[in-house]
Amino acid sequence: MPERRFHLLEVDLTRGSSRTLDVTDEVKKFVGGRGLGTKLLWDRVPQGADPLGPDNILYFGIGPLTGLWGGVTDINVKSPLTLLRGQTNMNGRFGTELVRAGYESGLLVTGRASSPCYIYIRDDRVEVRDAAHLWGKLNHNCQVQLKKELRQTLDDQNFQIASIGPAGERQVRNADICHDFYHHGARLGTGAVMGSKNLKAVAVRGTRLAPYASSANLMNMLREYYHRSYGYKASVRRWGHAVSMPERYYATTEGIKNKQLGWDPICDQSNPVLMEQRHKVWNDACSMCAAGCKVPYMRRDPPLGPVVGEMRHDNAGGWNANVMIPGYEPQMYLSPLMDNWGLDSEDVSGVVAWMLECYQRGIVTKEDLGGLDLTWGNLEAISKLAQMIAYREGIGDVLAEGLKFAPAKIGKGSEQYAMHGKGVAITSYEPRGSMVDAVGLAAHPNGALHHWRFGYRNLMMDSLTACTFLTGVLGDTFGGWDKWGTTALRYAAGWEWTTRDWQTTASRLVLLERAYALREGHVPTRDDILPERFFTETVYDKQGRPHILDKEEFLEHRKRAYVELGLGEDGIPSAGVLKNSGLEFVIPSLKLVR
Question: What is the pLDDT of residue 178?
């Protein structure tokens, strides 16, 4: 079976030029998406570089399976929010269109344009075009206008667009990238990096067939998945993510009132049945995915105007009981605003929750907040504060720096109420409800991101790039997720991988991701920790049962998690382990941090 070649499109905004690179050898070692993105960060971004400077990269990463089991694009940058590695998944059809354009390993953006621009890609035609007329527009307006322009000139309405809103333009540190209105590369400030490059949007259109090693065998695998995963598809298609938040409230693993509570009656108002009956519009799915877990909604009469949006766990969990908004219906107004401004709802909700508690405790006043009466659940005041962050107005200019930098600027003891890990807000998850969640949030080398608790599994899925939500059902369907992966790679790329090859590659990616954090100043035993609140304040669930983290137990679990991932008990890999994993090139840099 012939092996597939993989190509990367690089666009240098400083020079306004582009080139196509054959990265097949790198892909075989680092897969794509998240794995290849870490290698590009290591190679291309100097140690200690300013994330908002021209030395940073913006990598729209895809992999060998992009568009087959979900249309994930894994965006990689050095994060302005944490000063560590930044990575986020953006679903939809953007990555699939890059494959069809002939760039099977994605798009790498370097340098900085001298004025607002957008990147135009149609197969081999790549241009850096003026975007002065788009700068300042909300995400929805930008994408509608750009699609209209492209359709008028080419009679083609199939361009896929990723853009930033006003928050990205102003380099708000937790700004995101928006695609197709409700798909987002939300986490870790990717939109701020895009804004720092004066890049408003990327428009891509591909007209080619992907050169799979065996398209017929891939289609047979897809048919098997479609037929055997019906139960999963049916439940997810009906509810989307609207059901996940109430489930977590009842398990005391969802944040409430900036983590002051483990339960509140307000949680019962998050009712997915009423949301489905009153507001559900349709189901949407990413490329070739049968689940259809995107559930857009429409509401004509929310408190401040008619809206259309889509509620996901991550964009909704932080705004729900964590800021005491009573249920989904009033929140339906807030979520589309955040999407249009180009803000990471999950992270900004943590900033707002911090300010709500500071206002509750008298640390910040109405005068500090520009006249806002920032009480819990006050939708109008909460929305206005989020807008101030997006446009860097008043106190919003300080809050736009995120939870790594803003607390020190506010001072007055506010730091102890900022619920974050390495600068990433802890909003949708309550660590006291699960030791696994607690260690996963604390020990992730990129910040308090919950997926680290799955270790190898999510890292490989993000690198392939396939949807992580499908991992369980793919494993059940094909007799193990690694068996699914090696079989899919045989037919997609022509690689004859064994299970051992799969495991070795997964370990390599885990170690490289950790090594990058270490190179940029991360000290695991110092930094892989949670705010003191989780160790000193007890919360109670709906049944009145207490929940608190024991710090000694937490540290022991953290140590075991390090060892399970091939690290030392201090969270640092040995030179021998790195060499055996093919990562000899990182060893000189790690000697500097010991």
Answer: 97
